């Protein structure tokens, strides 16, 4: 998701939905109200990270129970929990990830929100107006 906003107030002008964007969207796309100074429009590309789940993996040992037969037997000797990447993908990598997820699902209206910026102009939060 790419969010376009007023650099002074954090007011959101529009978005480009999705998690993967082409070069044009990342570098040149702009959503700006008519008559508004384009230099005051901020562009925030929401970062995402892989989603991991914890699964149980069996520890196994292979033995040859009968030396006269070439059959190998597998014996479970324990279990361990490991983290693996979930197939369903990615989650927002921001402190306000829950809000971004709601916006992606369209269960919230982005225009009811405002971006909060720090003194350097970096996005640090997404708050309801």
Helix content: 10-25%
Order of helices and strands, N to C?
A: EEHEEEHEE
- Mean pLDDT level: 90
Counting DSSP H or I runs of 4 or more residues, the number of helices is 2
Main attributes of the structure:
3-stranded antiparallel sheet, 2 domains, 129 residues, mainly beta, 10% helix
Describe the secondary structure blueprint for this structure.
Blueprint: E1 2-6, E2 12-16, H1 23-27, E3 41-45, E4 48-63, E5 73-92, H2 97-104, E6 113-117, E7 123-128
Antiparallel strand pairs: 1-2, 1-3, 4-5, 6-7
Describe the structure in your own words.
The structure is a single chain. The relative contact order is 0.21. The two termini are 20 Å apart. Helix content is 10%, strand content 48%. By secondary structure, the protein is mainly β. It folds into two domains: 2-47 and 94-128, no CATH class; 52-86, no CATH class. The strands form three sheets. It has a three-stranded antiparallel beta sheet with strand order 2-1-3, with no helix packed on it. The radius of gyration is 24 Å and the shape is elongated.
Question: Can you summarize this structure?
Answer:
The protein is mainly β.
């Amino acid at each position: 998701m790419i969010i376009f906003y007023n650099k002074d107030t954090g007011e959101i002008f529009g978005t480009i939905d999705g998690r993967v964007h082409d070069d044009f969207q990342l570098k040149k796309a702009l959503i700006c109200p008519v008559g508004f100074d384009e230099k005051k429009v901020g562009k925030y590309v929401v970062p995402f990270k892989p989603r991991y789940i914890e699964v149980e993996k069996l520890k196994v040992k292979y033995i040859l129970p009968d030396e006269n037969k070439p059959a190998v037997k597998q014996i479970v000797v324990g279990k361990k929990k490991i983290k693996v990447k979930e197939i369903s993908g990615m989650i927002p990598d921001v402190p306000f990830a829950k809000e971004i997820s709601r916006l992606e699902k369209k269960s919230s209206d982005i225009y009811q929100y405002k971006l909060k910026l720090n003194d350097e102009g970096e996005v640090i939060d997404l708050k309801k107006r």
